[in-house]
Amino acid sequence: MLKSTPEEKVRQHFIETLINEYHYPVNTIRREVPIQHGSKELRDKDGNPVRADIVVYASKDACLNRDQGKINFVVECKRNKVEDGYTQLVSYIFNTSANGGVWTNGDGTIFYRRENKDGIQVLEETPSLPRSGQGWEDEQTPRIGELERPRNVRRLLAMCHNRLYGRGMENADSDLTMDMVRILLAKIYDETVTPDTVYPHFWITPEQYKSEAGRATVAKTIRGLFHEYAEQYPTVFDKDEDIAVGDSTLVEAASVLQDYSFVSREDDADDWDLMGAAYEQFTHVTLKRQQGQFFTNRLVVKAMVDMINPDIADKVLDPAGGSGGFATAAFRYKRRKAIDGTKPGSPQRERRLGLCKNSVFLVEISKRLVKIAKTAMLLTGDGNTGMTQGNSLDKYSNLDGWITSHCPKGTPDIIITNPPFSGQKTESMMMDPDILKLFSFGHKPDPE
Predict the structure, then answer these.
(1) 114: Cα within 13 Å, side-chain hemisphere
(2) Residue among 125, 321, 107 at smallest CA distance from 204
(3) CA–CA separation, 383 vs 363, rounded Å?
(4) Whole-number pLDDT of residue 31
(5) Per mean pLDDT, which range of 52-66, 156-170, 174-188, 371-385 is the poorest?
(6) b/e map of 246-266 (b: 16 or more CB within 10 Å)?
(7) CA angle 246, 150, 283 (to 5 degrees)
(8) Cα–Cα distance between 15 and 77 in angstroms, integer?
(9) 392 vs 319, 366, 369, 387, 420, CA distance in Å?
């Protein structure tokens, strides 16, 4: 029985990652491994024997015999928010045959590769870890269709956000929350438009990662992917909108995401409530409360959608959409109905899924939140074209053209929302006389 400590939790989570995402066999992984220095075990400054947190061996036999000459890499785990242990990791690697190592505290992970520079052994940061069966020198770029589905989405998104937060301070005006959304949109767009048999454009090689010029090239490509997506929605994204953090920081964040596929496949998407994970990880507390905005608990949202029981063809509208909680929940519910009782790839399923994607609509006054809602919908399985920016208190004819053409006035079958009730005197208070004149707020009594 292992004692539950913060450090042990980090270790167990990373062992799970090694097995499920990098596909290393269980029988090649050991925890708490003593490291030899010559004929003696390594000891700390107090004379206590030191143990490598996780060691991954080249084979089952090497693991069984603890063969220090056949270690693939070493992992150093630390408690959450404790940034130390690098020196230990270096000593483990250089006293073994390990070609690299990993430092992790659960929220942040850094990969290192052992290299020879002018006859001197050094550790260089590298964007990712080779999967089982790959060598550190192998070409590791997979095709789009070979990208892994992440097992722990929340961990990945937290790591990506922390890379931005930790290294994104070169631009004091940068909105890191929205930069995270923009990078995710670039990643999802690449997966959407690039055929499964083609290599991704959203990718950083170890050689590019090591040089300033290489990082600049990759950053330019990722910015281009975001611009291509944003140009499709000119009412939501500003003409000159860009990922604000510098090239190096952008690459740091993107390197965390590049190995994985974030686009939900139609047949397995019900297992992925990526919206919840993305929302919780990347919306800052100030986003949740800016302008008096509060967001409905996702369990409450699901319960409400379950009770309403929308049909596949029902037009569902959230006129105060926020970050898309009701819209994504309705979409998932309708999609589940579309998949049930139909065969994968059948024309019937395709038609039913098409109805789902084109019958969920959102209106939200904040462009910022519409961007988050579009990201959420893309992560949930597309349908993001119905996420529009506008003022639902205005005349219906003044709303986005997608709403007025696909969901004309009087046609929504279901309206589900949590309208903003702000008791604060903020920018969310409606002061526009053209809007206010559309409503009657009082009644003048008849004279006696």
Answers:
(1) 20
(2) 125
(3) 14
(4) 93
(5) 156-170
(6) bbebbbbbbbbbbbbbbbbeb
(7) 50
(8) 11
(9) 6, 11, 14, 13, 12
Give the model confidence (pLDDT) of 222-255 as tens digits: 999 999 999 988 888 888 899 999 999 999 999 9
Domain map of the chain by residue range? 6-136, 146-257, 304-420+428-433
What are the C-alpha distances in Å from 176 to residues 171, 248, 249, 284, 399?
A: 10, 14, 11, 9, 29
Q: DSSP states of 251-281 as a string? A: HHHHHHHTTB--SPPTTTGGG--HHHHHHHH
What CATH number does domain 304-420+428-433 carry, 3.40.50.150, 3.30.230.70, 3.90.180.10, 1.10.10.10? 3.40.50.150
Beta-ladder partners of 34:
51
- Selection from 101, 58, 107 nearest residue 82 by Cα: 107
Pull the structure tokens for residue 402: 């997608």
Tokens of 259: 């190995």
Instruction: Specify the length of the chain in residues.
Output: 448
User: b/e string for 195-205 if b means 16 or more Cβ within 10 A?
Assistant: eeeeebbbbbe
